[in-house]
Amino acid sequence: MSAITAEALGLFETIWRYMQLFTPPMPADVMLVLGTNDLRVADHAAQLYHAGFAPLLVCTGGVAHTGDLLATGWDRPEAEVFSERCQQLGVPESALLIEPEARNTAENFRFSRALLDRSALQPERLLVVVKPFMQRRALAHHAVEWPELPATTASWPGSFAQYCTPDLPPGKIGPILLGDFQRLLVYAERGWSAPQVVPPEVQQAFDRLVALGFTQHLLPKP
Fold first, then answer.
1. Using the 8-state DSSP alphabet, how is residue 124 labeled?
2. What is d(CA 77, CA 60) in angstroms, rounded to the nearest whole number?
3. Structural domain count, the chain
4. What span, in angstroms and rounded, lies between the C-alpha atoms of 167 and 39?
5. Which domain holds residue 198?
6. Distances from the Cα of 123 to the Cαs of 25, 28, 126, 137, in angstroms?
7. Do the domain assignments include residue 219?
C-alpha cells in the first residue's frame, strides 16, 4: 500500500473538493438514498427526513461489491441495510421504499425511477443523498438517466481528513476517491454520464496520486 504522506493528503483534498458541489439541498417530493459501505449516508438521510426535506425515501442498492474496496461485508442488499438504519433513526416504514437490485450509480437512478413509476408516483423534485465525494458523479448520471426531473444533492459535510475513520482510513478512501474521479471522465466519454469540466490542478492531483501508486480502484486501461 502506498504511503499516506502530507503531500498525498493535500492532493486527495483537492480532488475531494472538486467531487463535491457545495450547493444547498432543496426540499423535494422524494429523497433518493444511494447505498454504499458507509452508513453515515443513511444517517444523514434520516436527519433530512426529520428536518422535512422529503416525505418519502427510496433506498437503492443491491449487493454491488464483493472483494474490493467498496465491499460492505453485509449478506443482503445495501438498500435493505439502509432502510433498516433509517427506521432505527425514527423514519417510519411507510415513508420508505426499497430498490435492492442496482449495482452501479446509473442503475440507482434507472431502477428507482422504474420503482416509482410502478408505484404510480411522479415526483417533481428529487433530493439525492450520497457520500460527499459522490455528489458530482451522482448528478452527472442523473443528467443522463432522469434529466427532466430537477434534483439537488445532500451529504454529510466535512473535509477528506474529517471523513476518514479507523474503518474507512485514508489508505482505503483515497483510492476509492480516485476511482470515482476516473469513472466521472470515462463514463462521460461512453455517454453514461454528463461531461464535466476538470480544472488543471485537479487533473494534476489525480496524475500525481496515480504516480504515487494509489491505483487499487482504477478501471483498467482499454
1. S
2. 9
3. 2
4. 12
5. 6-18+159-211
6. 16, 8, 7, 21
7. no
Residue 1 lies in a domain: no
Same-domain check for residues 57 and 149? yes
Q: Is residue 221 part of a domain?
A: no
| Helix, strand, coil distribution of the chain in percent, nearest 5 | 45, 10, 45
Query: Mind listing the pLDDT tens digit for each residue in 7-56?
Result: 999 999 999 999 999 889 999 999 999 999 899 999 999 999 999 999 99
**E-strand spans in the chain?**
30-34, 56-60, 96-99, 126-129, 151-154
Residues in the chain: 222
Listed in sequence order, the DSSP H helices in 146-191 are 160-163, 170-189
Task: Give 56's strand partners.
Answer: 30
Query: What burial letters (b/e) apply to 93-105, b meaning 16+ CB within 10 Å?
Result: eeebbbbbbbebb
Clarify whether residues 112 and 59 are in a common domain. yes
Phi–psi pair at 84, nearest 5 degrees: -60, -40
pLDDT per residue over 51-101, tens digit each? 999 999 999 999 866 666 666 678 899 999 999 999 999 999 999 999 999
Q: Give CA–CA dist 155/41, Å, rounded.
A: 7
44 occurs within a structural domain? yes
C-alpha neighbours within 13 Å on the C-beta side of residue 87: 15
Given 154, 178, 202, the domain boundary residue is: 154
Phi, psi (degrees; rounded to nearest 5) at 220: -65, 150
